[in-house]
Prior knowledge:
Keywords: Hydrolase, Signal. The protein is α/β, with parallel strands linked by helices. Helices cover 28% and strands 16% of the residues.
Amino acid sequence: MPRPSRRPLVLVLAAVTVCAALAACSPGPGSDDGASPAAPSDGGTDDGGTDDGGMDGSATDGTQQSFSYGTAPEQVADLWLPTGTEVGPVPVVVLVHGGYWSAQYDRSLEDALVRDLVGDGYAVWNVEYRGVGATDPASEGGWPGTFEDVAAAVDLLPDALAEAGVERGPTAVVGHSAGGTLALWLASRDTLPDGAPGADPRLVPDVVVSQAGVNDLAAASAAGAGGGAVDALMGGAPDEVTDDRYALADPARRLPTGVPTLVVVGADDTTVPVAQSTGYADAASAAGDDVTLEVVDGEEHFAQLDPASTSWTRTRDWLDARLTGGS
């Protein structure tokens, strides 16, 4: 079946709590994981509304509506719904941005994918979270705060959709780079022991996608990935921490998840090693998970964020087949 026909965007005003607008953050050198993406842009929203880069919580056509899941400015998620939503379930994609979990970067990295998905009839939940290196202590992430944030954001999604009067359909979590870590971890929450950060999830995704993800935290720590970003996130290397945080947080140690998984990476990715994707896919498959691996020739790390890329086309085809019955 073909993809749903492309439709103009309209904001559905379904507010739990409208958050204060966040200041836009323009990625520079070192963006995401050591490179600077040129995020694709279509010049604005389809209906002529203002496209504010995902940072303005104002209630106007063509902008995101922000929902608070905590008290810090970063503890927000943006709900987008397509116009003309029919009666019945609407497929949902949760987006989790990358940036080596640094407070320097934000969910505006996902703007081009938001437009692509909502334009094709998906609801999108674009998640922000507290990162590492924030100037305000209240905004500081790391273990366990960053993980608890994305868990709380996903658990808020049913309420946001209910306020909008929309029935939730099949739901995917898609994470890029460092967001891939968090996406795979979100898929594993149902296997966490009682009392662990993120345990007892309200919502478990139907499928999950890691786009060039940091899928093995221990291996990335040993390699010094991102200039020590893993150790900064986790509060130390695996042999330096005294508790079981790596066992609870590392996607490579949370297998099997029981959630169908797409692992996609560009063969020319020099930002996050391709082995982070191929190794995870092999381990997940060996553990019994339903895993699809796509290694895309001729594409690098930030191709994942370009709707015109082969990587995103394959991701969309995989999502369409599982969430809408398309092919």
